[in-house]
Design goal:
Length: 315
Amino acid sequence: MMPARKPTSLIDRLPPVRGRLSANVTLATTTWFRVGGPAEVMFRPADLDDLGDFLAARPADVKVTVIGVGSNLLVRDGGVPGVVVRLGRGFAEIEAVGDAVIAGAAALDLNVAQVAANAGIAGLEFLCGVPGTVGGALRMNAGAYGCEIKDVIVWAKAMDMNGRRYCLEPARLGLTYRHSAIPEGWIFTLAKLQGRKGDPAAIQNRMQEIQSQRALTQPVRTRTGGSTFANPPGHQAWELIEKAGCRGLKRGGAVVSDKHCNFLINTGAAAAADIEGLGEEVRRRVHEATGVTLEWEIRRIGVPTGPAAREAKKT
């Protein structure tokens, strides 16, 4: 009798890379919420060619999910099947060129703002108030304090799931409020952001004002994922949440922030299901109280478990 054939693991089916492939990698330590299950496989490409070669050679049935630093991300408790791509230092370079900055998709928004300030480039100060990376900022047209990515983008480079490369001008990006028109699977790799000449001291002062205001009004020193819901047209999400009586609302180890009620907080004992379930309860109460349906701004990925799985099917 022939012995049963051992199932082939996903990592054994993947093409060779120059970067790093790792199986069953925890993502809870990656996201700012500090919750969630593991990545089936994590891929950290060495550079652009490594990423392109991998995507071109991967089996067609293997799902690929891209993450940044996890600042606006909720990973569900069942983890993320397939390959999770996380860009590293090979995609994090930042260069000031004239009155513009060219930055890799893995560059922190705060670092981009600081490089611009050091070079006397004004107009990018708002990025110091945007948690996350350039890639995530492009994906959701991130903005704060009166400015958005669409106001400063010159071009962005991206790669599709077959490894093909594109240079995209603003019209092709289709940037609107917290949204881009680029296909979900494409991976941003580089961007040029336009500023203007400015006084370095004045730029630094503006950045300090932004960071002080953010610390004063937002729960920045907690386990949170940033603004939970996008502002509906004509409304502020936090005002609707306040009106629905959700400030301080709890579910398991998750709570709606008392400081800014468009933030959900992991008090230290939350599961991803607690946070997502609390968010859905807030959405339900806001709709009942105001007739407005809140849309998630936080990106949710992975497989829900238990009661969360049933709730996820409804949304």
